[in-house]
Automatic annotation (TrEMBL):
Its EC number is 3.2.1.45. The lineage of its organism: Eukaryota, Metazoa, Ecdysozoa, Arthropoda, Chelicerata. Pathway: Sphingolipid metabolism; Lipid metabolism; sphingolipid metabolism. InterPro entries: GH, GH30_C, Glyco_hydro_30, Glyco_hydro_30_TIM-barrel. It comes from the Eukaryota. One of its GO terms (biological process) is lysosome organization. Residues 1-27 form the signal peptide. This is Glucosylceramidase.
């Protein structure tokens, strides 16, 4: 990649709407890629930009954090309330109602894949490895509080493996053992994350079972569990998942949640290239009702201890799958939430399906459990695009739409990848918010990293979405979500994907109305303490 280092520690000035000059310091060590429209922030042994630390709000003021295509990375500015003005000719007028409240946030995070661990291991100093984990989980990082952990190998592993590969029909799982991959790539970095944030919620997801449990005798591609629901094969697979939870516990890693299968419908498809196991809606309902649910409960992992999340697949079929499983009261009694992935795209219909799940099953939370960029389209669009701004916007757009349709958080895919977007044993390369350089002496924080931090830092667990209504103006290219935090701060997050700035007037957020300017191609988080 052809990079050019051009500035460091730029000091900037924002000319505000109300003509107040505000200064701040922008700590990103910028590297621009000639092929892309924005830039990455470089972290090496000498320097890494910390993100802003709490307190995020100041009394009688608005605190504004800005990331945009051209200059800013979570850059903070403070505007005293007395300087806030209304501009009657604003483009959009919004009314908030902080008393009208919806779902509470569970959190934000990413996945401790083998690929992530392989890449973190390539960093040439322990200090840099620690800094990377702090970038995600630390107070001066993105403050992630969720981690997803694949059970055994996934496509983002450098080989296929399960925890019981050597002996066929080992129904008692006598030969079950965690793999070197767990000890080398996953557990060390999960533990580092937990040292920095003791409240990380971990959830586990399997891709494929031991081959001898699958009809095809293969980890990859079409295939389901051998036998029938309730048979020794199905019961063994439930026990296998429990053995995983117990083996991690022996290594002092405990889980908050479990999805019974990553992308279960892929294993019903004849052309699917990597590790999977097929479950139709009916099969999943039966597996939970007869095998997994009772086994988890008997092992002390009932819903009070471990959140079982069904589906874990694309947003377009989330409603039909959830309905098929949760309509069965017995299966539903073991389930806590519905997990979904973004890969069917950001259509209004797909977001509406999330709301339909909530409306029909309001006691089950919704959580976005996987998403990444660079996974589809023409070959030229696949994999890593260092400094790509569009991908920061698609992330923000999907987080906002998900939250506005009852989701309780958003979990990214690989925490870290290499410059090609791997390793991945089937070369299913994608992009990630942090990329390790080829020689391991530095890593790059992409626009996507800052985009997610606009949510993960400010929407602490327990933050509640509040009502907002667009009174006037068109939201073309603009998305917004509004929350109140457990410490009673109003948080407004806006993404403006337009090439021009947009003025938005807010009403209902306290004594005064105010108009703010949202710059071209920007993501902004506004934090205002509420006095009531
Ligand atoms: C940036 O990413 C978007 C979304 O994946 C893609 O459409 C666009 O072509 C990328 N731009 C560049 C310059 O790679
Ligand atoms: C109000 O907004 C309009 C339209 O963007 C702009 O032309 C005008 O200068 C603004 N007025 C003030 C006082 O900022
Ligand atoms: C899977 O392996 C079993 C036992 O080794 C064998 O009986 C069966 O035919 C195999 N199935 C396929 C699809 O290869």
């Amino acid at each position: 990649m052809a990079f050019k280092m051009f500035t460091k520690n730029v000091t900037f000035f924002i000319l505000c709407l109300n003509l107040i000059l505000i200064s701040g310091s922008f700590g990103c060590q910028v590297k621009r890629n000639e092929e892309t429209d924005s830039f990455v922030c470089v972290c090496n042994n000498d320097y890494c930009d910390p993100l802003p630390v709490e307190p995020f709000s100041s009394p009688q003021s608005l605190t504004i954090f800005t990331t945009d295509k051209s200059y800013y990375r979570l850059t903070k500015s403070v505007v005293p309330e007395s300087n806030l003005k209304v501009n009657q000719s604003s483009d959009i007028k919004v009314t908030l109602n902080v008393f009208d409240r919806f779902q509470s946030i569970i959190g934000f995070g990413g996945a401790f894949t083998d690929a992530a661990g392989i890449n973190i291991n390539r960093l040439t100093s322990d200090a840099l490895k620690d800094r990377l984990i702090a970038d995600y989980f630390g107070k001066d990082g993105a403050e992630y509080n969720i981690g997803r952990v694949p059970i055994g190998g996934a496509d983002f592993s450098d080989r296929i493996y399960s925890y019981d590969d050597d002996v066929v029909d080992d129904f008692e799982l006598k030969h079950f053992a965690l793999a070197p991959d767990d000890y080398d790539y996953k557990i060390p970095y999960i533990k580092k994350g937990q040292q920095i944030n003791s409240n990380i919620k971990l959830f586990a997801s399997p891709w494929a079972p031991p081959k001898w449990l699958k009809t095809s005798n293969q980890s990859e591609g079409l295939g389901i569990l051998k036998g029938e629901p309730g048979s020794i094969y199905w019961k063994t697979y439930a026990n296998y998942l429990i053995k995983f939870l117990e083996s991690y516990k022996e290594n002092a890693v405990e889980f908050w949640g479990l999805t019974p299968q990553n992308e279960p419908l892929t294993g019903l498809s004849p052309y699917y290239g990597f590790n999977t196991l097929g479950f139709s809606t009916y099969m999943m309902k039966e597996f939970i009702r007869r095998d997994l649910g009772p086994a988890l409960k008997a092992a002390g992992y009932g819903p009070d201890k471990l959140k079982l999340m069904i589906y874990d697949h694309n947003n377009d079929e989330v409603y039909s799958f959830a309905r098929g499983v949760l309509a069965d009261a017995e299966a539903a009694s073991y389930v806590s939430g519905v997990a979904y992935h973004w890969y069917a795209g950001p259509s209004a219909e797909n977001y509406d399906d999330l709301k339909k799940v909530h409306d029909k099953f309001p006691d089950y939370f919704l959580l976005s459990t996987e998403a990444c960029e660079g996974w589809n389209g023409p070959k030229s669009n696949r994999g890593v695009k260092l400094g790509n701004w569009t991908r920061a916007e698609t992330y923000a757009y999907d987080v906002i739409e998900g939250l506005n349709h009852w989701s309780t958080g958003w979990v990214d895919w690989n925490l870290v990848l290499d410059t090609t977007g791997g390793p991945n044993w089937v070369k299913n390369i994608v992009d990630a918010p942090i990329i390790v350089s080829d020689d391991g002496t530095e890593y790059y924080k992409q626009p996507m990293f800052y985009s997610l931090a606009h949510f993960s830092k400010f929407l602490k667990p327990g933050s509640q979405r509040i009502y907002h209504q667009i009174d006037e103006g068109r939201m073309d290219g603009v998305k917004m979500t509004t929350f109140v935090t457990p410490t009673n701060d109003l948080v407004i997050i806006v993404v403006n994907t337009n090439p021009d700035s947009v003025k938005i007037t807010f009403n209902g957020a306290g004594a005064s109305k105010f108009t703010l300017d949202f710059g071209p191609s920007s993501i902004q988080t506004i934090v205002k303490p509420l006095s009531f």
